[in-house]
Amino acid sequence: MESVNDFLTRAAERTGFVREVYGEVKDSPVTVVPFFGDKRHEFFLSAFLQDEIKGYKIVAGLPGRGGLFGKIDEYWAVKDEGACADIAKCAVGWGSDSPKVAHLEKQLTRFFDLGDVSSFYEFGLKSKFFDKNEFLTVSLPGIPAMRTDLKLSEGRRVLVVPNRYVLVLRRGKPVRMEVNQKFYVFLVNRLAEEGFVPVILQNYGTYDISAAVGGKWPLFAKLKALDELTIARACDCVLDLFAGDRLAIMARVPYLVVAERQTYDGLKDYEAEDLAASKLPDRHIFSFATMIESNEYGNVVDGILVKLKDFLPTVDRHQLPSTLPASFVAPYMLVRERKMKKFGYRLFRLPKIEE
Q1: pLDDT of 163-181, one tens digit each?
Q2: What number of H helices and E strands is found in the chain?
Q3: What would the pLDDT profile of 60-80 be if each residue is shown by its tens digit?
Q4: Strand, helix or coil at 229?
Q5: Is the link from the previous residue into 218 a cis peptide, with omega within 30 of 0?
Q6: What phi and psi values does residue 269 have, to the nearest 5 degrees?
Q7: Do 18 and 84 contact (CB within 8 A), yes or no?
Q8: Is 176 in contact with 166 (CB distance < 8 Å)?
Q9: Domains plus CATH for the chain?
């Protein structure tokens, strides 16, 4: 008779995955949650929703992301490396518009009932989550020590993730917007000119700007998720450039958000910050995302440099939260108070900036 472990190995191979993270197999009903979505949803799945998956928990997604899910039993990674960039490029919400995802999910249904946590979160926690949970518990992964093969230059390190697409709110719906690659190259060069050390982090969803920057600064590509946190933790600031990225929150480091006000509020980006990053130093710049879509990004970069020069001298890294795995109860009161305010969507050109 086939063991459960052998069955899972066979099922992973037949469905186009590899068992990337797994331990002792438990004799309980198997629930597989396929996740190919954006960074906002990945963060909430990792920080808030792992306990909503029942039975023997398996999350299936892109390679290297399993370290973010410490409460599950297994993480399965897509076997086809060539499919990963297309999946990441098309990510919106919980899923991806890539036809490769539809094929992978269809294969999984041949063996399993698929779990679904979308009823708890969709660009904001839903009422069902609060109906079911008396307390709101945040779980953050532990951050590994720096590996000897990951080298960083000395100086004021600023992390840049050159995302190819970002989500923006248009007519009330999140849509993908392609960023001008030259924006990132220009930003990296200007950071260096102003005395900062750019640290570049590339993954399946980013541009490869290695040739354009010529190996002058630290550049890391396709690291596992926990190694990304290690790199981020070693930096003085993480830039979130219209992306809604939660890398800084998981790494527990200072961050500077550049966003459209209507997207920031409409996609409830403040929710993750208020719940999981209330003790982290942060700054915000609100502007037009279209400025990094076109060739008008010079003003955006000027605003970033002004804010960094003002922000980083105020940061005391000794006061940052621990790198150990963290679990804490977060009051939703602050988020509710913010949601009750009436924001005026006042967008403007940089370098005029506001907190």
Answers
A1: 999 999 999 999 999 999 9
A2: 14, 16
A3: 999 999 999 999 999 999 999
A4: helix
A5: no
A6: -65, -25
A7: no
A8: yes
A9: 4-134 (no CATH), 156-324 (3.40.50.2000)
